[in-house]
Specification:
The protein is 29% helix and 37% strand. It is of the alpha+beta class.
Length: 131
């Protein structure tokens, strides 16, 4: 399972590294240390926490508004595989994006909960790039 540094988690959550660090210090999201002593967050834990933050608001930071420029870097929060199609949900800061793609494409990209990915939006289609 992929793990994320505090800085990477902050970018995916749309907050400052200081805010992500404070949340980890307060126990809002579980961390562990790597061999080098860096604090890491398990991808599944970060995915669940990103949904919680989006639903409850970021807390002490203001939400910034910008034109999306069609690319949403985030974390996969759900994958539903059917026989032919897959439904993939990405939480990108306060934005939840859902994409329908072929099962084959989802498997080739290795999309699973906790994986970092970017949703690219063109009109009504959402394309996902694995980071």
């Amino acid at each position: 399972m992929q793990s994320y540094t505090i800085g990477q988690a902050a970018r995916l959550l749309g907050v400052s590294p200081d805010t992500a660090r404070r949340w980890a210090d307060a126990g809002r999201v579980a961390t562990h240390r790597d061999e080098g002593g860096r604090r890491l967050i398990d991808g599944r834990d970060l995915a669940a926490f990103s949904v919680e933050v989006a639903q409850n608001g970021a807390g002490d930071e203001e939400v910034s508004y910008t034109s999306a420029r069609n690319a949403f870097a985030g974390i996969v929060t759900a994958v539903k595989l059917g026989d032919v199609a897959a439904q993939v949900e990405i939480q990108a800061g306060p934005h939840r994006l859902v994409s329908l793609l072929t099962r084959e494409a989802a498997e080739e990209l290795g999309l699973e909960v906790g994986v970092q990915a970017t949703a690219r939006v063109k009109s009504t289609s959402v394309h996902i790039d694995r980071a």
